[in-house]
Write a structure and sequence with these properties.
The protein has helices spanning 21-32, 58-66, 105-118, 158-162, 226-236, 282-296, 300-328, 332-340, 343-354, 361-378, and strands at residues 3-4, 11-17, 38-42, 55-56, 79-85, 91-102, 122-125, 131-134, 137-140, 144-151, 173-182, 188-192, 199-205, 210-218, 243-251, 260-261, 264-266. It is of the alpha/beta class.
């Protein structure tokens, strides 16, 4: 919980805790929306590595373009195709509705931080341990005071914990391990499996002769060790020999805390904004950060209400549909049917998994027809 205390010197209009994609986008949006002094805090020095699939969907770039941020994918070629292997072994390779990129987070995040600093935000290296309410703002570790604070400090968010919100429970939390392996591939590859479903391995080419490869699955209350995760990765991607392996947790959007509490807003992974259907989080991060930053610039009296309203308007319907899709696709045969279906279903599923698409009745009907066709063929 926030602890009350006495006022101290060193005022900022907005303080952002965490300088990843959500935090940097929040800082930029706050400055663009008229905030005077904006503080951006992170415990790490940039550039720094961050375990992730490194996939950057076109929708994330749209948000950054609206913030005036360009060039974040420079040097990393577009990846126009996705090869998807269903749990039953059926495979399809099709062009993506919009090409994606694979940019190592060491590069991507540093470019966003640079853009935030370029917008006028003040970057400080600081590990936040405590927040407490003071008469005219929020005090951060007796070092900084801000009228509004945005917690964008990741899956293990200190800000979220201090607001009294627990971490996601089993069933709403995933774990993944990723590394980098030699690859001359030119398409994204996702290999799903019935074993421990929902789970999949991936290989996303970077364009420099390597690919980001990894494996992830939803946690069910039983700890999973590194040896197990690597065994599953090698089973689904035979021959992969990744280096630089790191694991990370993914708080799924099916169990989100409130987006705001008083003068404190949450964005990105701290708000459990990981797509439960695909594990994607960069689009959600930059979008929620941009919405939070714009709302925070309006001042403490209006920030929480504005952010909650903007968040609901922009992502509410999509999050309901992605949650439904995640529930529906917990049955592997549904995914097999979607993989076998036509390009329209493929595109709709990609939009739902990488952007802010919805799972409309026509798509559900097409998947249902494919399931019935398989049943009739087998009888």
């Amino acid at each position: 919980m926030l602890h009350r205390g006495v006022q101290s010197s060193g005022h900022y209009d907005v303080a952002v805790i965490g300088a990843g994609p959500a935090g940097s986008a929040a800082a930029i949006a706050a400055r663009l929306s008229g905030a005077g002094r904006v503080l951006l805090l992170d415990r790490a020095a940039f550039p720094r590595d961050k375990p992730c699939g490194d996939g950057i969907a076109a929708e994330a770039l749209d948000v950054l373009d609206e913030l005036g941020v360009a060039g974040v994918t420079d040097g990393y070629p577009a990846v126009p195709r996705l090869r998807l292997v269903g749990p039953g072994g059926a495979a399809v390779a099709r062009p993506l509705p919009r090409a994606a990129h694979t940019v190592p987070r060491r590069v991507f995040d540093a470019r966003l931080v640079e853009a935030a600093v370029g917008s006028g935000a003040e970057l400080r290296r600081h590990a936040v341990r405590r927040l407490r309410a003071v008469p005219d703002g929020v005090r951060i570790d007796d070092a900084y005071t801000a009228r509004v604070v945005i917690g964008a400090d990741g899956a293990g968010s200190t800000t979220r914990r201090m607001l009294g919100h627990p971490a996601n429970p089993p069933g709403h939390l995933a774990i993944a391990i990723r590394g980098y392996a030699p690859s001359d591939g030119a398409e994204q590859v996702i290999v799903t499996t019935r074993a421990r479903w929902p789970a999949y391995a991936w290989s996303f080419p970077i364009g420099d002769g390597t690919a980001n490869v990894g494996y992830g699955e939803v946690l069910r209350g039983v700890p999973l060790n590194r040896a197990y995760l690597l065994d599953r990765l090698h089973h689904l991607l035979p021959g992969a020999a990744p280096a630089g392996l790191r694991a990370h947790h993914l708080p799924l959007s099916t169990r989100r805390p409130p987006p705001a509490g008083g003068r404190v807003l949450l964005a990105g992974d701290a708000l459990s904004l990981i797509n439960p259907f695909t594990g994607e989080g960069i689009f959600y991060a930059v979008l929620s950060g941009a919405l939070a930053g714009a709302a925070a610039a309006a001042g403490p009296q209006r920030a929480a209400a504005r952010y909650a309203a903007a968040f609901g308007d922009r992502l509410g319907r999509h999050l309901r549909h992605s949650g439904f899709a995640a529930l529906l696709t917990r049955r592997p045969f549904v995914v097999d049917a979607a993989v076998r279906r036509d390009g329209a279903v493929f595109h709709r599923m990609v939009d739902l998994g990488l952007g802010d698409g919805v799972f409309d009745l026509r798509t559900i009907g097409r998947i249902g027809a494919a399931m019935l066709h398989k049943r009739d063929a087998a009888s």
